[in-house]
Amino acid sequence: xxxxxxxxxxxxxxxxxxxxxxxxxxxxxxxxxxxxxxxxxxxxxxxxxxxxxxxxxxxxxxxxxxxxxxxxxxxxxxxxxxxxxxxxxxxxxxxxxxxxxxxxxxxxxxxxxxxxxxxxxxxxxxxxxxxxxxxxxxxxxxxxxxxxxxxxxxxxxxxxxxxxxxxxxxxxxxxxxxxxxxxxxxxxxxxxxxxxxxxxxxxxxxxxxxxxxxxxxxxxxxxxxxxxxxxxxxxxxxxxxxxxxxxxxxxxxxxxxxxxxxxxxxxxxxxxxxxxxxxxxxxxxxxxxxxxxxxxxxxxxxxxxxxxxxxxxx
Length: 314
Ligand code: ASP
Known about the structure:
By secondary structure, this protein is an alpha+beta fold. The chain has one domain (6-312): Glutamine Phosphoribosylpyrophosphate, subunit 1, domain 1 (4-Layer Sandwich). It has helices at 23-45, 50-62, 107-118, 125-134, 148-157, 234-239, 242-253, 257-272, and strands at residues 6-15, 83-89, 95-101, 122-124, 176-178, 181-186, 192-198, 219-221, 227-232, 276-281, 287-288, 295-302, 308-312. Strands 1, 2, 3, 4, 5, 6, 7, 12 and 13 form a nine-stranded mixed beta sheet that branches. A four-stranded antiparallel beta sheet has the order 8-9-10-11. α2 runs antiparallel to α3. The protein starts with 5 loop residues before the first strand and ends with a strand. The protein binds aspartic acid.
């Protein structure tokens, strides 16, 4: 019998309206999501680990300027980039995280290096980058992270108190979305893993840390329950401890993956005021991709089935 493997990814949730999307932009996002799924799948297909697969998928999206992570990261209120990322292995429960990263090309690889080579779980800012240099992580100069679209988004809100939006309500499109990226995967050995990477929110106060690098909030993985990567308004996801909450509902209350995801994203978070979504997988290869916003860039693939790429609710 063919062993089961599967992967799901997201490129952010938010107010993503069909009426505001051009055909070119939709095609570009679809290409970015497809390339990321392929990057992860090519590892799973040859028996590679879920950890390698989620890192590869997230790296692919970090290198793709349309997503708010790595190259396409949004600007802070100081006009800088401060990226956050985390990764967790559901087999060992080992995790690595970084925040306030400005020049590492792939913050997710730096988070993985923290997990495997630092003896710690979470490093921040310049010291995290200094550690990255000692373990061979790739760096870029500032110009690599400049994209005209992100700069314009920041210019639109920079003299206000508005933060959060990687597409702001104040832009002429009215589009609002959270463009964090993430991946969850199951490998042929039955191990699951999760990874999340983000530039945070446009015009965020420098020094602000969102949910993405916080283990249990934006990212969590445990073979016994599920692997989760979140996207949305980070302050709410931190306070609701979203990723671990889903795992706990499965572990302590016997919820299925779907029951736990639906309850947390579509009921609890909505009442709490937390807009966004997440991707989830369990060790049987069940996948859930719930969100309570208009859309979420997402894709998933299960061995033996075709891959799917979706943006809107339907
Ligand atoms: N959750 C991220 C943050 O608050 C934003 C996003 O999902 O795009 O930093």
